[in-house]
Design a protein that fits this description.
single chain; 7-stranded mixed β-sheet; alpha/beta; 314 residues; 7 strands; 9 helices
């Protein structure tokens, strides 16, 4: 049986606890919780500010690097492409700013962009393959060597026949006009200006960023065949893209994984930078001599630029 003294002790203990809480709350520990929260918030604000400062500094350094390359090395590409006629071909989804930046550098180097071709996604849609094959058979010209070629190598050859040539000084003729009309009429691509007057000898293909989720290299097999056909029907092809396009799911990575294609088609994976745009120019000039290389920052086996423009070790 619980006696009266037990109740007294219990009641006293409760009141003591309550009293201690009041005293502590009004004493040294008053506001301790809020102070801790405020202190942590201040630390978080400082860390956020530090991160912002680092970002601003990083952007400033990036701008300095690009400005340095653009201004201090200005003129290095001058004359590299004098009077060379160039066709610019954009892959579906290619960035306009990237395309314009590359074109500006080509023109600064003395090149003349005769044609801009925008490929439609339908061209590489497996559901449109029958249409593409039928159109290729209709548009073939007598001077095209298509022995042992795949469907998309022939597509590349056809586009090259329409807008380019291996030899300089070629203008539009009846066959090139018919090819261009057939390709544009089927909505597989669009081009400017139309009609074409001068055919190019060199071609720059501007790659798009990889889609999400990233496809495997096999997804680009038709595109690689297309690039090979473009090269075979012209004086040379350079694929220009960003580091993303040289990473997983990117066109340039797929190209560089094809040992046969890389023997004839060049690539530059930093074409969004002034230095990379200059490298596109150098690569086109190299293509005009019958050589190819893979240049840039991401698994580029031939380094930052063609050896002819790199400083030789003493």
């Amino acid at each position: 049986m619980i006696d009266f003294r037990y109740h007294i002790v219990s009641i006293v203990a409760i009141f003591f606890a309550l009293g201690a809480g009041v005293v502590l709350g009004a004493g040294p520990l008053k506001g301790t919780g809020s102070e801790i929260v405020a202190s942590q918030a201040e630390k978080d604000r400082q860390q956020l500010q530090d991160a912002r400062d680092e970002l601003v500094q990083a952007k400033a350094l990036d701008k300095y690097r690009d400005d340095y390359v653009a201004k201090v090395t200005a003129g290095l590409t001058d004359g590299k492409l004098t009077n060379k006629k160039i066709a610019v071909v954009t892959m579906p989804g290619a960035d306009n700013d990237l395309t314009n930046g590359v074109q500006d550098e080509l023109e600064k180097a003395g090149g003349v962009v005769t044609t801009k071709v925008a490929l439609d996604a339908k061209l590489f849609d497996t559901g449109q393959r029958q249409l593409v094959e039928s159109l290729v058979n209709q548009l073939m010209t007598a001077d095209m060597n298509v022995a042992d070629s795949t469907t998309y190598q022939r597509v590349g050859l056809l586009l090259a026949r329409g807008v380019a040539a291996k030899d300089e000084g070629k203008t539009a003729d009846a066959d090139s006009t018919r090819v261009v009309s057939g390709l544009t009429g089927s909505k597989l691509l669009s081009l400017k200006p139309s009609p074409i007057k001068d055919r190019a000898t060199l071609i720059v293909v501007v790659a798009a960023k990889p889609p999400t989720p990233a496809p495997d290299n096999a997804t680009y097999s038709d595109t690689i065949d297309f690039l090979e056909g473009l090269d075979q029907g012209s004086g040379g092809v350079v694929v220009a893209g960003t580091p993303d396009s040289a990473g997983n799911g990117g066109l340039i990575k797929a190209l560089r994984s094809d040992s046969e294609a890389t023997k004839i088609v060049s690539s530059v994976d930093v074409a969004d930078l002034p230095a990379g745009q200059a490298t596109v120019v150098f690569s086109l000039a190299e293509q005009a001599t019958g050589k190819a290389g893979q240049y840039g920052a991401v698994n580029a086996k031939n380094g930052v630029a063609p050896s002819a423009v790199q400083t030789k070790d003493n």
